[in-house]
Every structure is written in C-alpha cells, then in structure tokens.
Amino acid sequence: MNVEEQAAEFQKTFQRIRSELQKAIVGQEEILEGVITALFAGGHVLLEGVPGLGKTLLVRTLAQCVRLSFSRIQFTPDLMPSDITGTTILSETDEGKRTFRFQPGAVFASIVLADEINRATPKTQSAMLEAMQEQSVTAGGAAHMLPQPFFVLATQNPIEQEGTYPLPEAQLDRFLLKLLVPSPSFEEMEAILDRTTGAGQEMPQPVIDAETIMGYRQFCRQTALAPHMRDFAIRLALGTHPSSELATSNIKKFVRYGASPRGAQALVACAKVRALAAGRFNVAIDDLKAAALPALRHRVLLNFEGQAEEISTDTLIQELLEQVSAQMVIKVPL
C-alpha cells in the first residue's frame, strides 16, 4: 500500500470511528474529534465538565470502537497507589512452594478512564501520572510494561471543588490535550432523550484494533511540517511566556508561567493527525490553530492578578493566535 492509499484509508478510519461514537454520543463534535486525534497522536486527554455530560459513556464507547481493553478507576480520597498500579503478593504454587507474584492493578488496560482524578490525594495522582509518562509500573524492583496502545482519559468537575486535590501544573503538563465538555443545546437534549428513553438504541461497532492504531501513530508522524509551520507552532508556545517578546500585553500582565516544550509538541502532533484526517499530506495554519486551545489552555498558569480578575486562558490564547497570525509572513515558493 502506497502513501496515498494509506492516507485515504486513515481518513476513512478516522471518520468511521467518529460515526460509531456518534451512535452513542449526541453532539460534542469538538470533543469527539479531540479524543480521536489524541488517540492517534499518542497522548492522554483531560476532560473537564460537570457530571452527566456523557464523559464515561464516551470513553467506554471508544474502547468498543477500537477493540481495546477498558478499565474505569473511580478516584476517591482513600484510593491508594497500589489500587491503581498493582502490588506484589505472596502466593502458593501447585507444588506447595510460596513465591511472590505481581498482581496487576486497574491501570493495566489499553484505555483507562480516571474518573474525577482530582478527588484522590497527590500521592495517588502521582502514581497514575507516572504510569502515563513511563508507560510502565515498577513493583518489587521489577518493571511491568503497560499494554500498548496505552490511552488515559481523565475527568474532573470544574464546579465542585470541596475535598479535591487540584492537579499541579507539572502534572497537568503530562496531558496532551485538555477538552472542555459543554452542556447540550435544546436540540441536542431532545435527541438525547429520544435516544436514551426510546425502545432501542443503535450499538457502536468495532472499527480497528491495537496493531492498526500503533501503525497509524507512526504514519501520522510522517506528515510534512514546513519550516514556517514549525515556526508558527514555536511562536505560539513561546508567546505564552510573559517574559517573551512574542507575548501579548495581556499575557505579560496576567500570566505567571507559559507552556513548556510539550506544548509545542502537542500542537504539532495534533496538527499532523488533523491534516491527515482532512486528506492532506502537510500541516496547514488552520490545523495548528485548531489545536491551539486544547493543547495550551492547561499549560498557561495565571498570576494572582489574572486569577483575581477571572481571566480566561482561552481568551489569552485567542489573542495570541491573532497576534502571531498577523506577524507571520508566509512565503510560498513559486
């Protein structure tokens, strides 16, 4: 299969996964695209929204569509790290001998839903995030590899903050994207009621498997990124720092820290997937712009003044996008 045929097959697969998810999820177009993009980009997703918006249903349905094992972890204050990663236990063999054996925890699945991740203590959060970063769990001096692909979708409630342990900025940075799940519109609510309270519901069907996903991840990395597109991503990432000459006046006034290099990596990785999903072999400005908010919003830390005035990081990033777009002079070769 040549590159053109592989790209066409990827585009078709991307659309099929989205269509299967839409059998269970009403609306949420940006959320669906963001989750599928992160799956092929090889990063994790933080879903923020009030309860009852279908976040758990989305993750479970995705696991069905891609034939991957699914595990749901409900984070609570008394959840221990070993409940997630697993522990070494003393067991008896058939011959009557006693030996230590590793009992895998809930994290040993390809798609893991970390429900209300900010409910657990920092110690438990760090165990989860270590597994996300290292793709392995260490217990009893031995490293145990997690199944591949390994894809974590964590949720948190932005309203109810009593008894929560907000994720530190360094841990938020481990998530490729942060997606804000909106409430449904009137028309979407009608469709939800008709679909969930009616006689029957169409069931999503499997589309691809783990081996195909890993192959597509490598294929997406081959998408062309022109030098001026790379510069655009770098300007966006550096422009989130208040000390940078690329920053807007509001970023210099309201931001304490900007995005790390992971922010620029997230921009490029998601833009490449988006380009292929649209049937193109090279990254365009629109691909980087579409990835800017989900890739950078959780990597911009407001200062005290920004928090006091309830400044939205999305607004700051939109202003930066406009400024960088105006400054960039794209030279198209003849």
CATH architecture of the largest domain: 3-Layer(aba) Sandwich
What's the helix count? 14
Q: Percent helix among the residues?
A: 40-55%
Amino-to-carboxy terminus distance = 31 Å
Strand tally is 11
What is the percentage of strand-forming residues? Answer: 15-25%
SSE succession: HHEHEHEEEHEEEHEHHHHEHHEHH
Spatial order of the strands in the main sheet? 2-5-8-1-9
Question: How many structural domains does the protein architecture include?
Answer: 2
What low-confidence regions span 5 or more consecutive residues with pLDDT below 50?
330-334
CATH class of the largest domain: Alpha Beta
Give the full name of the CATH homologous superfamily of the largest domain: P-loop containing nucleotide triphosphate hydrolases
Class inferred from helices and paired strands: alpha/beta
Radius of gyration: 21 Å
Mean pLDDT metric: 84
**Envelope shape:** globular
Q: Mind describing the biggest β-sheet?
A: 5 strands, parallel
Q: Which fold name corresponds to the CATH topology of the largest domain?
A: Rossmann fold
Structure description:
The protein folds into two domains: 3-212, P-loop containing nucleotide triphosphate hydrolases (Rossmann fold, 3-Layer(aba) Sandwich), CATH 3.40.50.300; 223-327, Orthogonal Bundle (Helicase, Ruva Protein, domain 3). Helices cover 47% and strands 15% of the residues. It has 14 helices and eleven strands. The strands form four sheets. Strands 2-5-8-1-9 form a five-stranded parallel beta sheet. The chain has a two-stranded antiparallel sheet with strand order 3-4. Strand 6 and strand 7 form a beta hairpin. Helix 9 packs across helix 11, helix 9 packs parallel to helix 12 and helix 11 crosses helix 12 (285-296). The two termini are 31 Å apart.
